[in-house]
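Project outcomes to date are best conveyed with an example. Our students and postdoctoral researchers have been running inverse folding experiments weekly, and each run begins with a structure described purely in tokens. The record below, which covers 258 residues, was selected by the lab manager from last quarter's runs and is presented without edits.
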């Protein structure tokens, strides 16, 4: 695993409980700017699915806050979802966790047989319902470009960029990327997480686009997303019964592995 060993020792449940771990964010999109670059504003983001011991399902033990644990330490930003929470988010078309199922093979940090089973059946999470998730996420980025306080490990550097360019260039890059990914997903049922347009997205991230140009591109992408929804070959929604069966099978595979 590529995660810092000291961090793994401090959170010693991560290795035995995780069934699927992978990079998310800038690393997975091919847009990571290392800390050696003075303009770097990137964390090392990781997303994972975990299956805790039986007492978390049949007893009173709880995993994190409502099935989520977040670890922020230095450059590391790790989000872990308990299996049922992960499956619910996948069913809802959550853009962040959907990307975990379409990573480039080099961006997976851990894949167990239980995790591979999810990857092998990822198509059951594809549907037109993802339109609302992707467009909603993108509109959130559009608002935060000029209205959000800069927080977290990279907050100070990000604030400097906002002051320099007049808007949050990282949010702008997120906006364009997420809309393109949503349009592609509605059209094909597949996600291109490692972006073929990474260089153009990096231009936006570096502040090489004016705010007016970002707004113009956003309007175009929102219109294209509506067209993609109308033409999409995907089902209207997911099959809840199939997803429920998948969740049970994944749990059984994870327990067999332990």
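After processing, the design step wrote out the following sequence:
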């Amino acid at each position: 695993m590529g995660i810092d060993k000291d961090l793994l020792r401090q959170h010693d449940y991560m290795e035995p409980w995780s069934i699927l771990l992978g990079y998310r964010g800038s690393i997975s999109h091919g847009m990571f700017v290392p800390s050696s670059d003075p303009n770097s504003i990137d964390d090392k983001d990781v997303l994972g699915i975990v299956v805790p011991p039986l007492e978390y399902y049949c007893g009173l033990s709880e995993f994190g806050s409502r099935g989520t644990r977040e670890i922020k330490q230095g450059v590391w930003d790790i989000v872990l979802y308990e299996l049922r929470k992960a499956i619910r988010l996948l069913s809802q078309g959550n853009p962040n966790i959907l990307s975990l199922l379409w990573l480039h093979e080099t961006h997976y940090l851990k894949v167990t047989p239980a995790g591979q089973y999810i990857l092998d059946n990822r198509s059951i999470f594809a549907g037109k319902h993802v339109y609302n998730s992707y467009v909603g996420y993108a509109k959130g980025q559009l608002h935060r470009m000029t209205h959000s306080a800069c927080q977290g490990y990279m907050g100070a550097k990000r604030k400097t960029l906002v002051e320099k360019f007049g808007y949050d260039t990282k949010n702008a890059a997120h906006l364009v990327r997420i809309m393109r990914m949503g349009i592609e997903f509605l059209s094909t049922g597949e996600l291109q997480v490692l972006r073929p347009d990474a260089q153009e997205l990096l231009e936006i991230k570096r502040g090489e686009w004016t705010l007016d140009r970002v707004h113009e591109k956003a309007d175009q992408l929102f219109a294209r997303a509506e067209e993609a929804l109308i033409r999409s070959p995907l089902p209207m929604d997911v099959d809840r019964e199939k997803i429920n069966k998948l969740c049970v099978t994944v749990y059984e595979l994870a327990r067999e592995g332990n």
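The CA atoms of residues 4 and 113 lie 24 Å apart. The two ends are 18 Å apart (CA to CA). The training component of this project remains on track.
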